[in-house]
Amino acid sequence: MDYEEIKYGAMSREQQLESSLAFPILMRKVYLWMTFALVITGFTAYYVATNPALTGLVFGNSAVMWGLLIAEVLLVVAISGAINKLSLVTAALLFVLYSVMIGATLSAIFFVYELGTIAQVFFITAATFGAMAAYGYFTKKDLTSIGRLAFMALLGIIIASIVNIFVGITAQNLIFSYFVVLIFVGLTAYDSQKIKEMMLRAPDAGEKMQKLALLGALSLYLDFINLFIYLLRIFGSSRD
């Protein structure tokens, strides 16, 4: 019996009941927030891609594009690092703002890939994500080691991506994309298990735990977006 089990066993019957009732509420919020963010991102991406003025603003000025990319990183850091200081409403609004920014930058895919291809890859991503999230949720195996390996590999990918901006290695792009997909497949399963365990230990469904559920939604949202981008690179057919 680990510490968390001992802690749970020390709860009163009323506290145990409240905790068990909180779990399904919080898990629903995780996936509702994640889905809501994906919908916002999709609509934003399509709107920007079909609006010449916004397209010119985002892609016609490198300062705007770099500003968006930097702001996206800062928003993730702000939400994750200051979640305890933020109100639930503020954290949710920042998540929505982040989803809009991702949508704006992601609108570029509509100029590179056919709409049918984007839709097809989206469903492939949804199926892959769903399968791995379900595996992470239901498996009894501890996925901590997989999560750590995937995270370290992700750090390597970030460094390689920065280097590739200056070097421009194109011959290995496809292999690189397969590698990234494998990493986010592992992270999806790990994050799903981690979120479930965290929500199982929730004493209630109050604001503090709802903010943690929002963080969980952000993690899964990032897993989905990255899976989609790199699967699109693998399966997508360029318009050229």
Structure description:
- The chain is mainly α and 240 residues long.
- Helix content is 82%, strand content 0%.
- The protein has helices at residues 3-9, 13-49, 52-59, 62-81, 88-106, 115-138, 144-167, 173-200, 207-235.
Question: What attributes characterize this protein structure?
Answer:
240 residues; mainly alpha; disordered N terminus
User: How confident overall, as mean pLDDT?
Assistant: 83
User: Low-confidence parts lasting 5 or more residues at pLDDT below 50?
Assistant: 1-12
Computed structural class: mainly alpha
Number of folding domains?
Answer: 1
Outline the biggest β-sheet: none
* Shape descriptor: globular
Span from first to last CA? 60 Å
Q: Report Rg.
A: 19 Å
Report helical residue fraction: over 70%
Order of helices and strands: HHHHHHHHH
Measured by DSSP, the beta-strand proportion falls in under 5%
- The total count of strands amounts to 0
Number of helices: 9
